[in-house]
Amino acid sequence: MTGQTTLLAPETGGRRRSARAAVLRAEARLYRRDPTNLLAIALPPALLLVLGQVPMFREAEADLGGLRVIDLYVPVVVLIALVTAGLQVLPPTLTGYRELGVLRRMSTTPVRPATLLSAQMALNGAAALLSALLSLAVGRWALDVALPREAAGYALVLLLAAVACLALGAVVAALARTAKHASGIGTAVYFPALFCTGLWIPVRSMPDVLADVVAYTPFGAAAEALDRAAAGGWPAWSQLAVLVGWGVVASAAAVRWFRWE
């Protein structure tokens, strides 16, 4: 615990730029030392590999336009990587710092809430995107799932979805009093988020009213946009707008409600 506190306290005499760099370096070291973070990266591609072993998931379905169930699950698993990082990994970490008194010490340094939040979002975002890329690789090389035909649109949606998911996690961390509370709130949001990604029912197969509601969540908008990009179309601007809106609003809320102690 003492080692964490020392690492996370940047020098008080430097400029804000050096403080940001110090925070990012310290957070990166701590991130690498936590084995649960590696598990979070490996879990989505492993889940996809397991799903790919179900024989019926690898058979083309006429109702799906000749696609296989496993083809539809790749974008879902990619989103699971982002949602897990945002709602399961980030909130307990930041709230744990508050419980340990680390944030109280940081409040006396040039570090600002936006600096710490952006460092955490950058690290968890990089890990989530790595997990997403590994899932795409597993789908392509192990399960013969075609790579996205509109690669630029797919990458844009991944980036915007990562920001939105991590910003929501930062809001949870800002509001929760303890790491236990953060885990509970994160889990309460996590499973509805998985539903919106289409984990249990593909968004395209949901009743119209439900699909319309899900489309206004960042998870549902991202799921539809990834499906569209995978098929070769550019994501709808309405879907991109939903992701941008959630990312901007949630980021501003996290900074506004952030507490050092």
TrEMBL record:
Keyword check for Transcription: no
Membrane-topology descriptor: Multi-pass membrane protein
Pfam families from the UniProt entry: ABC2_membrane_3
InterPro entries in the cross-refs: ABC-2_transporter (IPR052902), ABC2_TM (IPR013525), ABC2_TM_bact-type (IPR047817), ABC_2_transport (IPR000412)
PANTHER family, per the entry: DOXORUBICIN RESISTANCE ABC TRANSPORTER PERMEASE PROTEIN DRRC-RELATED, TRANSPORT PERMEASE PROTEIN
Compartments, as annotated in UniProt: Membrane
Main subcellular location: membrane
Annotated ABC transmembrane type-2 domain residues: 36-261
Top-level taxon of origin: Bacteria
Protein name (database record): ABC transporter permease
Keyword tags: Antibiotic resistance, Membrane, Transmembrane, Transmembrane helix
Keyword Lipoprotein in annotation: no
Residue intervals passing through the bilayer: 38-57, 72-94, 115-139, 151-175, 182-201, 236-258
PROSITE patterns: ABC_TM2
